[in-house]
Write a structure and sequence with these properties.
- It is a single chain.
- The chain is mainly beta.
- The protein has a single domain, classed as Porin (Beta Barrel).
- It contains 5 helices and 17 strands.
- It has helices at 3-17, 36-40, 53-57, 98-106, 194-202; strands at residues 69-81, 109-121, 124-143, 146-168, 171-183, 186-190, 215-228, 232-241, 246-248, 253-255, 258-268, 273-280, 296-304, 308-315, 318-327, 330-340, 349-360.
- A 14-stranded antiparallel β-barrel has the order 1-2-3-4-5-7-8-11-12-13-14-15-16-17. Strands 9-10 form a two-stranded antiparallel sheet.
- The chain is globular, with a radius of gyration of 21 Å.
- The relative contact order is 0.19.
């Protein structure tokens, strides 16, 4: 692996080991963590979610199904930009540090990792997690009309505790308390500042001095209305996320309260199920600058013998696809999806692949 890619991977390791002392505030209605198989289904989660994804998506999903224990286990994922497959060898030596900038002016680079440790049963759930993604890209007209390199980080972590009940066959309700670390900082480095570009590439820990952090406590409330017969289920999910706003202790930021809705249709037999879903996030427009196309999520999941899963969907208008194999205590899966980091379709689209594995039952 070339020097530039090694340096970028170092950023992930530093963030993971740095104890969350370089973060900032959340600026999107996207979930802070979405289970990888749910990402393959277009990020739809309000009427159906997988494993620990229930805690982050809609705690009212906990009482559904026949199993008392929903999930106990550890899941790890690695995210990579498909540009990595096309990356050419780039050596960064004395006097040629501009190669890094030239590479980023022609392509983006996005890397990340996720980790969760969770326990879920029909009425109670607990999960600790982290998600860290690093994005680097160049713009020829960013710094007052001059070329610059932007280093961006999305970093989240913390713990969530959920409770849920199903007072009637057609209705369930749940709530989640959470303590989270959250941040989405970015640093713009002018192309003329070759020394700083070289410093970040050779010593990514230098980024820490330019960043800030935040942490806070908040809560979510979710509900699910469900109509069932032997072969068809219809569901409506409603969720209030960050109820009343989640205050970030840097004294400057509050994650706003958002309202999400979702519709689901499941066609099932005794061991197979096809689930179709549509989610609309931030229905009250708390994130006023977020465009409508970034709030719509559509997807389909097909589970065969409860062991083999296929998923397809649209995440912010970008196609998704995935496969998961459940081999009892061991699971492995692959998800291909895209994210739009800009304000308009195609502005800063990142085409990503996530490989994940879990151990649990």
């Amino acid at each position: 692996m070339n020097r530039f890619l090694r340096s970028t991977l170092m950023v992930l390791l530093i963030w993971f080991s740095a104890g969350w002392d370089a973060l900032w505030a959340k600026n999107s209605s996207e979930l802070i963590y979405t289970e990888p198989f749910d990402l393959a289904s277009g990020g739809t989660t309000l009427t159906r979610a997988s494993q620990e994804g229930i805690v982050f998506a809609n705690p009212a999903l906990l009482p559904l199904g026949g199993a008392y224990v929903r999930w106990i286990g550890l899941q790890l994922g690695v995210i990579a930009d498909t540009n990595l497959a096309n990356s050419k060898s780039t050596k960064l030596g004395e006097g040629d540090q501009g190669n890094v900038a030239n590479t980023l002016l022609s392509r983006s680079l996005h890397l990340g990792q996720t980790a969760t440790l969770s326990l879920l049963n029909k009425n109670f759930a607990f999960s600790v997690f982290d998600r860290i993604e690093v994005d680097a890209a160049g713009s020829r007209f960013a710094d007052g009309g001059l070329p610059a390199i932007e280093f961006g980080v999305e970093a989240y972590g913390g713990g969530l505790l959920s409770f849920a009940t199903r007072p009637t066959r057609w209705f369930s309700v749940g709530m989640t308390a959470k303590y989270i670390f959250v941040g989405e900082p970015s640093i713009l480095v002018p192309l003329a500042d070759q020394e700083k570009i070289k410093k970040f590439a050779e010593d990514p820990q230098a980024l820490k001095g330019d960043l800030k952090y935040g942490k806070g406590m908040g809560g979510d409330v979710g509900s699910l209305f469900l109509w069932q017969n032997p072969t068809v289920d219809l569901s409506l999910g409603l969720k209030v996320e960050d109820l009343g706003g989640t205050h970030i202790d840097n004294g400057q930021e509050t994650i706003p309260q958002t309202i999400h809705t979702g519709l689901g249709l499941a066609i099932h037999g005794s061991t197979e199920v096809l689930h179709l879903s549509l989610d609309y996030r931030d229905a009250a427009n708390a994130y006023t600058e977020e465009k409508t196309f970034k709030k719509i999520y559509m997807g389909a999941r097909l589970m065969i013998r409860q062991r083999l899963g296929f998923a397809v969907g649209l995440y912010q208008g970008i196609p998704t696809v995935g496969l998961r194999l459940d081999a009892f205590l061991f699971k492995i899966g692959l998800t291909a999806y895209g994210r739009e980091l800009g304000q308009y379709p195609g502005e800063k689209q990142r085409n990503l692949v996530m490989l994940y594995t879990s151990l649990g039952f």
